[in-house]
Amino acid sequence: MKKTTILVADDETEIADLVELHLNKEGFRVVKAANGEEALRAIQLHTIDLAILDIMMPGMDGMEVTRRIRSEHPMPIIMLSAKTSDFDKISGLVIGADDYMTKPFNPMELVARVNAQLRRTMLLAQQSKVPDNMMVEAAGLALNPEQRSAVLYGEPLELTPKEFDILYLLASHPKKVFSAENLFQQVWKEDYYEGGNTVMVHIRTLRRKLGDDKDKWIKTVWGVGYKFNV
């Protein structure tokens, strides 16, 4: 079973290690970053379920990292900061953070807030989830998951099971960006490891069958992943 992955971005090593220790005890996988650039790079390389960001990091601060995450990802964000004013808290929440904790903080309270944000995200996902047997139609493309059939402009598409699963996953969540890791985990039901090339090859073949020479159906979001573009 895939572990929930938490990004901890803080230039204070002692704090990052302390947070990692408590999150590991709860069964979470932790990816650490020492600055904003490393945090954004980690999001490109891993499927992150929640981010904990220190505001006052060198170079790109937590506020800017939050803005950039929010332009592409819906993951929950918890900010950590030594700034205690209401203005700073409100500013963090306005630009996209879901929660804000001031330093020093109780690590057990942070873990509790992490669990609360993850529960909230799960409930929202369940409420908006497309039923597994729902027919998807978009601009001449029709996908029937019960019959495992795909039709494009009235002509049947000969897709492999994995190609159908990828296309159906993308088409049933229009505009959502899926990383290669996320696609592999959801379609192959396995841990990612070296699955990036496998996903890339399937996307390339799928595009060819769709006649998708200009990314009409499947768009590459550079550095992030793929999305259904209709």
Give a description of the structure.
InterPro entries: CheY-like_superfamily, OmpR/PhoB-type_DNA-bd, Sig_transdc_resp-reg_receiver, WalR-like, WH-like_DNA-bd_sf. Residues 133-230 bind DNA. With 230 residues, this protein is of the alpha/beta class. It folds into two domains: 5-128, 3-Layer(aba) Sandwich (Rossmann fold), CATH 3.40.50.2300; 136-228, Orthogonal Bundle (Arc Repressor Mutant, subunit A), CATH 1.10.10.10. The protein has eight helices and eleven strands. It has helices at 13-25, 36-45, 62-70, 86-94, 107-128, 161-171, 180-188, 196-210, and strands at residues 5-9, 29-33, 50-54, 77-81, 99-102, 136-138, 141-144, 149-152, 155-157, 218-221, 225-228. It has a five-stranded parallel β-sheet, sandwiched between helices. Helix 2 packs parallel to helix 3. The longest helix is centred in the middle third of the chain and has 22 residues, at 107-128. The mean pLDDT is 86.
